Amino acid sequence: MNATDETDGKSRVKVLVIEDDTLTRLTLCNLLRKMDYSTVEACNGYTGLMAFRREVPDIIITDIIMPEQEGLETIAEMRAANPNVKIIAMSGGGTRRNANYLDLARQLGATETINKPFRPNDILSVLNSLQ
Q: Does residue 4 lie in a domain region?
């Protein structure tokens, strides 16, 4: 887990990125920082929940399929803890018993969803829709 918030005196939107794939997580965090967001990283749902409680992020971006604790359970727990938190679920696909993971994420409380792989403009568009 890595908090990366440069303190420059102004309040920035804090985004918690929960993603088990290191390259994807680092790439997404670098993109967000270039867009002037503050980022906190977690490599699975379990460490993501710990960061969520400690860091109190404005927005969460979480993968669905992860070790330790998957994203659907993580979304449900975050939504129960804070009904107003903005959650973006992302997934590279996959189904469980003919149900789309991103549809399930919405049912459990994800505010928005995004398919992987994504382009920088896709992330920007979803983040803009939340503000």
A: no
